[in-house]
Write a structure and sequence with these properties.
fumarate hydratase activity, 5 helices, alpha/beta, Fumarate hydratase class I, aerobic, EC 4.2.1.2, Fe-S_hydroAse_TtdB_cat_sf, fumarase, six-stranded mixed sheet, Fe-S_hydro-lyase_TtdB-typ_cat, 6 strands
């Protein structure tokens, strides 16, 4: 199902999203990845951020965007905290950057592409991978494909 949502994403909204939903995000998001307001906006391999994600989720983080699988601990924290894990299509960074209207470094400028940025986005496309009910598209999609 296609859903247009506004960021920052509230718990009320995150609890309505289900694995497999297509979302289009408009509003303000923060990232630790990198003419237009920003260069390539490709998502990072999410699992390399898992050690930070647990604490952030427990502190109230409602949604994360990445592209790869997450650890069982992070998936449990997503469920426990009523959050969601979204995936942006890997390899489409140049296309995704067209949805970014403004970019501002807010911390760690010396890290370059890894600096923390505040982004204003419009209809930024993502797919809900893991939802607050424990559904995980990366697992269910494999099972569906195996049936074929």
């Amino acid at each position: 199902m296609d859903k247009h949502i506004t960021a920052p994403i509230t718990k009320k909204v995150s609890r309505t999203l289900r694995a497999g939903d297509y979302v289009y995000i408009t509003g303000t998001i923060y990232t630790a990845r990198e003419g237009r307001s920003i260069g390539s906006a490709g998502s990072t391999t999410a699992s390399c951020r898992d050690r930070y994600a647990l604490k952030l989720l427990d502190l109230g983080l409602t949604a994360m965007i990445g592209k790869g699988k997450r650890s069982p601990e992070v998936l449990e924290a997503v469920k426990r905290n009523g959050s969601v894990y979204l995936a942006a299509v890997g390899g489409a960074g140049a296309l995704l950057s067209k949805c970014i209207k403004e970019s501002e470094v807010v911390a760690y400028n010396d890290l370059g592409a890894e600096a923390i940025r505040k982004l204003k986005v419009e209809d930024f496309p993502a797919i809900v991978v893991a939802d607050c009910e424990g559904n995980n598209l990366y697992e269910t999609a494999i099972k569906e494909y195996q049936k074929i």
